[in-house]
Design a protein that fits this description.
595 residues, alpha+beta
């Protein structure tokens, strides 16, 4: 029985060395005819290895390559109920390949455990060592050893190194097995990784816990799966989710920053950052990057990427990103980190891809205008937060003057984070905006920090936050704030306090174009909500927007031309003191009929 087991062990040693290597000599042991006594003791014998050392935890076996100093190779007797624990350590330049004999299938370090529980007989052990370029194995060894060797092999495909194992020599170019070498793919599939070559998490963990990876892909667990060239965004992974039910972290597929279409750059041993690929699908964010988009490895910044740009369809204004080595992987940029807050790129024309009405100069260059202020006086500055001030309808009067703020949330409700609010817990708060376009006497009116400060309880600072589901997804999220509830504007005095989301004081009027809108009055405060408002992304027009006096109002049936409303297109130039060339009227009269 013992001799048959020895022959089987020798055969196994020959098999595991089949791809080349050092099979130990079966005659290197001095076991002789020593035999244990059933129920009393058993012997452990080792074949002297070539290229490494076999040691026992108790120090009784310490058998190394012939000619060395480790010569405790003689059979060792163990009490019948005792356990012998063996480890294999490779010499410099060698690697442990596998056990054979009684230890077949065990791992190198402390993995060979011998006893008489299963069967009582003497034991014989073989350890096979080989240089890396001749490393073969009868089974996939310990991943702690296998993975580094595989990565070394991948690196050698870019920079040839004959001293690393050549996995494809035995397993085939497709890793599906060759001759008596098994299929790597089949083995990984049995372990739950059938797409191991394309599954980012198989090698990297996904995303790698380095730099700002977590800020760009913060999903974990099963949701963090990805494949090579993945160009998806969070919305692709959660197509049925709402902005508040979706995860509150971005999930940009690795192909957005790394090679997406050139598989020759995958697993070549080099960390490839590829920000522009002409072959990227037209629908992807990558296709919107500049042809000169690049990563600067010296300062670790990116330039020319759509994700860090003004975001307009026509010619995005790209900004250089913060360094990849952020102070914290969860650090967040404010809106002005990419857009200039608010976006202020030059408008290319009404309704065009480059149209812009966020913040502009009037066509006659007399004043700024845009969607940054609620109710602007003849001086064109906002009523929001003015308090006791001259009545903009009658400058001889001093009255309380105020208005709800216009924030990104007003028109981009599904993008802004509803928890990022000021003291009223209603209005989105972002005081990073800078609305000055010309130095003049009213500049302070265009800077949020003229009133908002770190020490203020009623007008605090805020950076603003967004929800990632529809932010940086390649399309414009225009979704009006349809809330109708009380905004909690407790600072407005007395009977003028509004109970609807959008409002301004001193708003009384009896004109037909104002009565036939969504507006109601509380004292002298005109108040309304934007639930009827709609945006047409094709025409780039809005209808039923009450703060525009509802131009395009589909519910108004008047026939008097002076009270009909034209539809203003996004990016239409604004005229204040001169006539619109096409109509002979000022832009103001598009809403304010009868002026």
């Amino acid at each position: 029985m013992v001799r048959l087991r020895k022959l089987a062990g020798l055969a196994a040693a020959i098999v595991v060395a089949a791809c080349g290597g050092n099979a130990p000599s079966p005659t290197s042991t001095t076991a002789g005819e020593q035999k244990g006594v059933y129920g009393v003791s058993y012997f452990v014998s080792v074949s002297r290895p070539v290229g490494g050392t076999i040691t026992s935890a108790d120090g009784l076996i310490d058998c190394g390559t012939a000619g060395g100093a480790k010569n405790l190779c003689a059979p060792v007797s163990y009490a019948w109920g005792a356990t012998a624990v063996l480890s294999a350590k490779a010499d410099d330049g060698q690697y442990f390949q596998s056990w054979a004999g009684e230890c077949g299938g065990a791992v190198a370090d402390g993995g060979c455990r011998l006893d008489t529980v299963i069967y009582g007989t003497d034991k014989w052990v073989v350890a096979v060592f080989n240089p890396p370029d001749q490393l073969g194995h009868s089974r996939i060894p310990d991943p702690a050893q296998h993975a580094p060797l595989y990565r070394d092999f991948i690196k050698s495909t870019a920079t040839p190194n004959p001293g690393v194992p050549q996995c494809t020599r035995c397993h085939g170019q497709d890793y599906n097995g060759l001759a008596n070498a098994p299929s790597c793919t089949a083995c990984h599939a049995a372990a739950g990784k059938p797409n191991w070559l394309g599954d980012c998490s198989f090698c990297h963990a996904f995303p790698p816990a380095t730099g700002a990876h977590a800020a760009h892909f913060g999903l974990t667990g099963a949701a963090a799966s990805g494949i090579y060239g993945d160009l998806s965004v969070l919305q692709d992974r959660y197509p049925g989710a709402t902005p508040t039910s979706a995860p509150s972290t971005y999930a940009f597929g690795c192909g957005n920053c790394h090679p997406a279409t050139d598989e020759g750059k995958h697993m070549d041993g080099v960390t490839q950052v590829s920000l522009f690929e002409a072959s990227a699908p037209a629908s992807s964010l990558k296709a919107r990057n500049s042809a000169t988009a690049a990563y600067d490895p010296a300062v670790r910044t990116c330039s020319g990427v759509y994700c860090h740009s003004s975001g307009n369809d026509g010619s995005p204004i790209y900004v250089t990103t913060p360094t990849w080595a952020l102070p914290s992987p969860t650090s967040k940029l404010a809106c002005n980190g990419c857009h200039a807050n608010p976006p202020r790129y030059a408008s290319g024309g009404a309704g065009l891809a480059t149209a812009n009405s966020h913040l502009q100069f009037s066509a006659d260059a007399s004043s700024p205008w845009g969607h940054y202020a609620f109710v602007m006086t003849e001086r064109r500055y906002t009523q929001h937060g003015r308090g006791n001030a001259p009545n903009f309808l009658n400058w001889s009067q001093i009255v309380y003057s105020d208005a709800a703020p216009i924030t990104c949330q007003t028109c981009h409700f599904d993008t802004t984070d509803p928890s990022s609010t000021g003291p009223s817990r209603f209005y989105w708060l972002d005081t990073t905006g800078d609305y000055t376009l010309l130095p003049n006497a009213w500049d302070y009116e265009y800077v949020c920090t003229s009133c908002h400060s770190a020490a203020s309880a009623t007008a605090p600072l805020g950076q603003g936050r967004v929800l990632p589901l529809r932010h940086v997804n390649g399309s414009r999220d225009v979704q009006f704030d349809a809330r109708t509830e009380d905004p909690g504007a407790s600072w407005v005095p007395g009977a003028d306090r509004p109970v609807r989301p959008y409002w301004f004081t001193q708003g009384s009027t009896t004109s037909a174009w104002w009565i036939n809108t969504n507006r109601t009055m509380v004292g002298t405060t005109a108040q309304f909500d934007l639930s009827p408002a709609r945006y047409d992304p094709v025409q780039k027009t809005c209808t039923n927007v009450t703060c525009h006096m509802a131009q395009g109002n589909t519910s108004y049936t008047g026939t008097d031309p002076s009270t009909r409303f034209e539809v203003l297109r996004w990016g239409a130039p604004y005229y204040v003191s001169t006539n619109v060339p096409a109509t002979g009227r000022t832009t103001c009269s598009a809403c304010h009929r009868g002026m």
